[in-house]
Amino acid sequence: MAQEAATIDVYLPPIAKLSSPDAPARPDPLRWLRQNTVANVDEMSEQHQESLLETRPKAAFIALVRNSEVEEMVYSMIQLEARFNNRSAHQYDWIFFNDEEFSSEFMSVVQDATNSQCYFEIIPEEHWSVPSWIDTTRFDVGRQFMGSIGVGKAWLQSYHHMCRWNAGLFAREKRLAFYEFFWRVEPGVSLVLRLLYTCNLTVLS
Fold it and tell me: Which GO biological-process labels does this protein carry (predicted)?
């Protein structure tokens, strides 16, 4: 009868891989942050701030907003522009989303609230509808039940569209393909502190 091989239960440490002398050094994230972080952008000269525009992160403010919320949206924008975005080192784009066309009044008023570029996008129907694989009967019963027990606006179908879009579908919008970072802004929010932080991304470009 053949004897079974014994199992050796020991720890074998990984063998270190020696890199080639010509291989580039691995980046040190902590060192990079120390060298490229500015804790107070207001201490930089205007010329220095403007020089950072070309290497700033590919980022934008995004807002899901209706035409009727124009006053609340402008209020939020004023807060962010005054305390962060109006500096020469920032000036990030604003991108507004709606499931219907924006009115000319809305577009004019919000553009006047910022010196940055504004874009106005209509959410495609496939991102703002009940998916075909959903049992609509159970969906309708469920949202009516949640509404009856006081779960926010859960009885509204549009509320579920909004939650689904905010949960990740927004990242599939074509306009956002150029950007890598987003700051979602709600209408009617207040920002009481000045944001003085900025980062020079020259070494990453």
Answer: cell wall mannoprotein biosynthetic process; protein N-linked glycosylation; protein O-linked glycosylation
